[in-house]
Each structure stands twice: as structure tokens, then as C-alpha cells.
Write a sequence for this structure.
């Protein structure tokens, strides 16, 4: 496979499937010679309920999990390929330089020296005829880093302003921030839960995949005792670099925390409190670690949660809060764009991690390449 010349515009696909387990965000983007992205097309594919349930189950140890994970990876590759076909809609695969595929995380354990994103990149290359770059996180972990978050380098590329201290907050299943000060290093880390606990709690109580606009949370009342108990989570006190997943924030932990209170709390009040927990853990991190922030731009599905956005605005009264739409990038596609950009970094033999973010020993070229 030939390496593309470093200074020409190229077209890439980015595929993001995050911890929310909602589905696949697919973007087609032209990335210019300076690395600046231009969004050409987008496509979203919801996971079938059966796959979603299987992936969720595979987050915890279970019998025959290696075989089951391999089958799920194959199914994912077929869905990724389907998303790419719909995205390209007649555009020749040969005109796409590469697909950057995040894969679906089943385990994220940097302290144990590994992270696992499945998706069968070989099969995806076979099905699409396009070079695939995958497994972006492992190299950073091999270099002593967290392997996450990886979006900050892209945020710096596409959203930094020379005269305004911006923070980008990506609210997916987990929430992460990127600090883009006017002077000083770009930093970033996972602040704690994004939509994950909200999704899990509403799913248990009425079967919905998510709390649309945060309406159910808004119908409840914050429970101060529960909020205080949630805020005791040790992860929140760890200094960056740090990253989180379903390992840290999940229903089992919520159930233990609830039962420790020995009090009946209505499901809607729990949801209201979970929403506040998400907002406060994020806002606290911005206040503590990103001093002097002038503007916060939210992306990820959480940008659609009106109640959550409202609470973030209240908790950060001195910060202008908007979504990345205000900067010209639709919040739904920022992370998939980042993986298109990261694929380009890999093909150009250019680092994709930021050691100041992940804690890795140095810059590393990320990913594994599956040639077309
Ligand atoms: N209209 C909405 N109201 C509230 N929450 C929403 C809305 N749209 C999306 N979300 C939330 O966003 C999540 C998906 O966000 P996403 O950025 O795809 O996360 P991930 O990267 O973890 O997959 C959904 O699970 C849901 O919680
Ligand atoms: Mg998603």
C-alpha cells in the first residue's frame, strides 16, 4: 500500500460507536492539507436491540465470551459496512483513502495494560474494499498512557481559537473535556458519566433507550443525599490523566449506592439526581482544572438533552455555553470526524495522541492498518 503524499486533500470515512451502545455515527469528510476537516456526508445506523443487548452483556465476564465477542465483532463489521455503503451512496470506494473505525469498546483497563475495541477491521476492509485503520487506543496504552480520550488532538486541530479559552465537552456515554487554553498545553480527560447512567435508569423503568430532552429527569426532584453519595465516587477525585468506562459507572454501582441510603427515592427523582451528577461532575472539572475558561462547546448526544444543557449553563455562570454547532460543526458528528482525522494521521505516519492528555511517554502513531 502506498503512503499518500502529505500535502493533499483526501477523503476519509470516520466510524464512531461509543459507550452509549446506541449505534454507528458515520461521516465522510474531506481533510485538507493542513488537517482541517470538511464534512461531506453523514449517516447514522441504530444498533438492532439484539446486538445492543449482546454488547452490553459482553461488558461483564460470561461463559464463552471469546467466541461470543468474535461473533459480535463480525456482526459489527457487517453493520459498519452497511453504514459505509449508505454514506457513500454511489461514491466510488476507491475515492476514499481510508476508514477510521473506533470499534466498540468491551473493556477499557489501562491500569491492566489493555483496552479492547471489537469490530473485525479485516472483515470491514474485505466488505468495503477500503483501507481500514482501527485499534487506535492500544498503542497509547502500550506507551504508558490511558489510551483515551483521543479526540482532544482533533478538537485542537478543528476548534481551538488563538484568542479565546475554549473547552470542548463531548457528552457521550462517558463525558470527556478538552481544555484549549490560549497559552499552555491542550489537556483532556474523562470527567465521569455522560448519558450512560441516565440511559440505563430509564431503560430499566420504562424500556426507553434514552430520556428524550431530559424530560423525565426534569419531572423529578434532585435528591441531595443521593447526589452526595454519588459524588463520593473515587474516580472524581483522581487527577488527570484519567479515563473511564462502564467499569466505573454502571447500574450495579448505582444500585449499591441507592441501597446504602436506606431510603425510598422515586425513580424520577433518581433520574433528576443522575442528571445533576452528570452536570456537576463535568462542571466541577471545568472549574477546577480549566481556570479562565471563556466558552464551553458541547458535542455528543448529550448536547440534545435540554435539561442537562440547562444545568451545565447554571453551574458555569461565567462561561458561555453552546454546542459545537456555534463553531460550524454539528455536535452529532464531531467524534466520528475525529476518527476520520485520526485515520489520516496514521496513514501520514503522524502521531494522533497527545501525551499531555493521555499520559503516554511520548507522541505515537496510533492504529493498525488493514490495507484495501
Ligand atoms: N434528544 C435527546 N435527548 C436526550 N438525550 C439524547 C438525545 N439524543 C441523544 N441523546 C443521548 O445521547 C446518547 C448517544 O450519544 P453519543 O454521542 O452517540 O454517545 P456515544 O459516543 O457514547 O455512543 C444517547 O444514548 C442518549 O443518551
Ligand atoms: Mg453513539
Amino acid at each position: 500500500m502506498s503512503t499518500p503524499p502529505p500535502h493533499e486533500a483526501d477523503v476519509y470515512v470516520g466510524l464512531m460507536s461509543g459507550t452509549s451502545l446506541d449505534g454507528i455515527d458515520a461521516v465522510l469528510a474531506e481533510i485538507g492539507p493542513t488537517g482541517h476537516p470538511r464534512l461531506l456526508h453523514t449517516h447514522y445506523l441504530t444498533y438492532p436491540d439484539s446486538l445492543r443487548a449482546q454488547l452490553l452483556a459482553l461488558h461483564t465476564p460470561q461463559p464463552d465470551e471469546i467466541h461470543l465477542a468474535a461473533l459480535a465483532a463480525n456482526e459489527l463489521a457487517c453493520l459498519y459496512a452497511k453504514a459505509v455503503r449508505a454514506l457513500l451512496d454511489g461514491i466510488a470506494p476507491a475515492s476514499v483513502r481510508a476508514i477510521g473505525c473506533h470499534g466498540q469498546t468491551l473493556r477499557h483497563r489501562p491500569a491492566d495494560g489493555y483496552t479492547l475495541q471489537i469490530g473485525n477491521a479485516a472483515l470491514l476492509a474485505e466488505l468495503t474494499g477500503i483501507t481500514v485503520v482501527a485499534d487506535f487506543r492500544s498503542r497509547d496504552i502500550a506507551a504508558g498512557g490511558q489510551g483515551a480520550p483521543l479526540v482532544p488532538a482533533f478538537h485542537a486541530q478543528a476548534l481551538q481559537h488563538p484568542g479565546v479559552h475554549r473547552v470542548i465537552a463531548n457528552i457521550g456515554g462517558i463525558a470527556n473535556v478538552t481544555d484549549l487554553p490560549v497559552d499552555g498545553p491542550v489537556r483532556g480527560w474523562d470527567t465521569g458519566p455522560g448519558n450512560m447512567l441516565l440511559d440505563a435508569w430509564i431503560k430499566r423503568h420504562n424500556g426507553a433507550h434514552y430520556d428524550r430532552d431530559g424530560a423525565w429527569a426534569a419531572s423529578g426532584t434532585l435528591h441531595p443525599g443521593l447526589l452526595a453519595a454519588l459524588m463520593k465516587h473515587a474516580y472524581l477525585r483522581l487527577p488527570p490523566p484519567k479515563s473511564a468506562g462502564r467499569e466505573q459507572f454502571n447500574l450495579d454501582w448505582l444500585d449499591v449506592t441507592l441501597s446504602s441510603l436506606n431510603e425510598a427515592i422515586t425513580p424520577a427523582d433518581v433520574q433528576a439526581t443522575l442528571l445533576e451528577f452528570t452536570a456537576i461532575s463535568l462542571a466541577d472539572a471545568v472549574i477546577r482544572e480549566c481556570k479562565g475558561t471563556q466558552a464551553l462547546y458541547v458535542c455528543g448526544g448529550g448536547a440534545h438533552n435540554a435539561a442537562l444543557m440547562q444545568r451545565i449553563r447554571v453551574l458555569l455562570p461565567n462561561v458561555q455555553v453552546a454546542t459545537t454547532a456555534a463553531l460550524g460543526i454539528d455536535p452529532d458528528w464531531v467524534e466520528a470526524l475525529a476518527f476520520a482525522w485520526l485515520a489520516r494521521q496514521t496513514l501520514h505516519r503522524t502521531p494522533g495522541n497527545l501525551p499531555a492528555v493521555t499520559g503516554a511517554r511520548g507522541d505515537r502513531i496510533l492504529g493498525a492498518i488493514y490495507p484495501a
Summary: The radius of gyration is 20 Å. The domain at 10-147+332-370 is CATH 3.30.420.40 (Nucleotidyltransferase; domain 5).
